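Batch 3, record 17
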Amino acid sequence: MIVEANTARFDSLALDNGTTLGPVDVAYETYGELNAAKTNAIVVLHAFSGDAHAAGISAETGKPGWWDNMIGPGKAFDTNQYFVICSNVLGGCRGTTGPSSLNPATGCPYAMSFPVITIGDMVRLQKMLIDSFGIRRLLSVSGGSMGGMQALEWAAAYPESVVSAIPIAATTRHSAQQIAFNEVGRQAIMADPDFHEGSYYDKQPPARGLAVARMVGHITYMSDDSMREKFGRRLRGKENFSFGFDVDFEVESYLRYRGSQFVYRFDANSYLYITKAMDYFDLTNGHGTLAAALEKTQARFLVISFSSDWLYPSYQSQELVRALRSRNRDVAYVELQSNYGHDSFLVDVAEQTDLVRGFLASTFEKAQ
Amino acid sequence: MIVEANTARFDSLALDNGTTLGPVDVAYETYGELNAAKTNAIVVLHAFSGDAHAAGISAETGKPGWWDNMIGPGKAFDTNQYFVICSNVLGGCRGTTGPSSLNPATGCPYAMSFPVITIGDMVRLQKMLIDSFGIRRLLSVSGGSMGGMQALEWAAAYPESVVSAIPIAATTRHSAQQIAFNEVGRQAIMADPDFHEGSYYDKQPPARGLAVARMVGHITYMSDDSMREKFGRRLRGKENFSFGFDVDFEVESYLRYRGSQFVYRFDANSYLYITKAMDYFDLTNGHGTLAAALEKTQARFLVISFSSDWLYPSYQSQELVRALRSRNRDVAYVELQSNYGHDSFLVDVAEQTDLVRGFLASTFEKAQ
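Prediction for the assembled complex:
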């Protein structure tokens, strides 16, 4: 399944900070066919460093999508039945307008003059894209990590447009620890002398700071167990310690490599803006309680968390489930046993597939 | 209790990398009185960023020691009964020879020409200090975190000199995750352009890199729970988000401050060398199994871990306990319930005090 990237343009987008941004481009891909009644559309939402290429093989890069094991003919999000849409988030660097985009007022990249955005802003832009397809109601909104946060925002902000929501390995608001890890990444980037207050687009990017930020990220995405299985204390291409500061352990080699490669696919300013949006995210904002924030939702929910995910621990999904139940919402919750930590939603998809397939089938049947 | 720092000098120290270092200074403090039979000496071992000032009020700085709540008259390490010694580790930057010390061969700081050292090297130097006091057997060796790793090294390397060992919140070898967090800190320091391959002593130190490293450290020392209690999502001196990249949250302010202050008391090269020593530490090295590594130990053990410590999780202490029991060693193990994460051994000392006091009293009685 070769897929082409598309771009939609909107004249302006109202932002939570009170300003307006425009024009705004949205990069997106679609998989499957929209039915005549437009009742089979599903929005899939990517995590922090993801992009619009969720499934199939990219015509441009030849690479599979980040959730290709979940989206396609006969898969969890079965493209024989459903029309799946995925767009790059606002503030991103993979085709949707973000800090690396040209500001039409100046002809230069926005850099740090880009407005600080929120998860609400990201979803508002996605809503405009969905409206442009003439889709009134989404059969489902789903994603893992920050994708799950967007799914929750969709259900709360556009209750009449969301038939079901599947937030996976997500939270209703970032904890102090989650904010802290993001702040470390931001400080690493801003400490890099190549950062130049974000105006590095005609120069070297802050590659070393971005690499350190990414290394921290990778540790938090894995579990203690999965790191032990994958690396243990194995040495890298040697039998004894180097007694120096070159790579000794496999895990050091892995982190250095992943960190150094990240700069080729991700913009440091997008790192700052998107992590900030995640930290600001709090469904209870303006509502007092989580239950009140979910008062108007009409969706059915399937909430999934993973036993070894210590970055978005199960108790955070369970808070969501309790709040939904307290308002008598239709909610199913499963904590899947997996060793892969936060990354589980991307890699350990067998049980997740069964859950999602069944939930979508019953939702589609009820909605007809 | 005002305490003075002391320094001992040794002509040379044999190192695990096969070379010899000399002369070597050791900064140390003592509390209480050594009895005539020299049977009441306890070595207390500091954690990664600690120093020789474990208890009392420093004559130099006016500050209390890092374990002042555990060491003193009537406290867990009761200085009315015991003679307590604490020295700064080899490779440190608080009086003991380390990379910031002058290399007598060149008249310049060693910087990165300092040899890569091990926990074994640290303990070998401590043994020379203890020998210089004429102490043949230590009533106990104890410390938290890296201090606990040194206590284990003492018991394994000098079995006839150690009557008891109290490793707290420690491990017998660093896991991939523990190595990974250390590697992030090292990469943050080495990515700082002020690092200059470690030769920064006549210039600006790599303060920003060291700050990022320290921020990561602080997150790993606390628990998700303790961060929620201490910071939650509270904003710092404002009622609404800044929609910018200045500090929004209390937790950001705390981490930035702690990170930025660290450079005034810690040397970045010591950060590299000491974390490397921790990563190399593996009691099983050269023995095959942990049980074999502990085969020759003669000490009684009190092993303590903390329920919320995710950096040195309880299962790591339990591996040690199982190996000791498999060799029929006298070992008591307690997992203390505490919310403070890895920092618990420094801050939540009520139960720890009872455990240590009772264990030392019975050990002292048996040893007479």
